[in-house]
Design goal:
Number of strands: 4
Radius of gyration: 15 Å
Low-confidence stretches: none
Strand order of the largest sheet: 2-3-1-4
Order of helices and strands: EHHEHHEHHEH
Largest sheet: 4 strands, antiparallel
Distance between the termini: 11 Å
Mean pLDDT: 92
Structural class: alpha+beta
Shape: globular
Oligomer: single chain
Strand content: 15-25%
Helix content: 25-40%
Length: 153
Amino acid sequence: MSSTTERTFIAVKPDGVHRGLVGEIIKRFEQRGYKLLALKMVQAEKKLLEEHYKDLAQKPFYAGLVKYMGSGPVVAMVWEGLQAVSTGRKMLGATNPLDSAPGTIRGDFCIQTGRNICHGSDSVESAEREIGLWFTKEEIVQWDHHSKAWIYE
């Protein structure tokens, strides 16, 4: 990977899965030119969710968030590409969907913070941590960057 090529963790939350938005979210990342390296649908266990959201443990909404994220299936994904973390966050839109611009995933599909349909890593470091929580190394496709050109290489 080049110095600006990153990996990010994106998860479609239970409300996004329930509403049938998984394909639309994947489509937007693919159309943008990102490579999908890993994908799975899981019923996340409480322990995983508590670890994933541990930085929010002191917030009043933490228990409700963990309960909600365990209430239905989650589609977890790893995406790779140029500035994947920051661009992925821009594509998702603001955490509060009412602050999200039209054209973003949240701006187009939701209106409530508690049901904002997706999660995206907020830094390269958190992406690495989150990817490690949700996927084993063997579950992540390793593209051969030298023999197979990609869209922006």
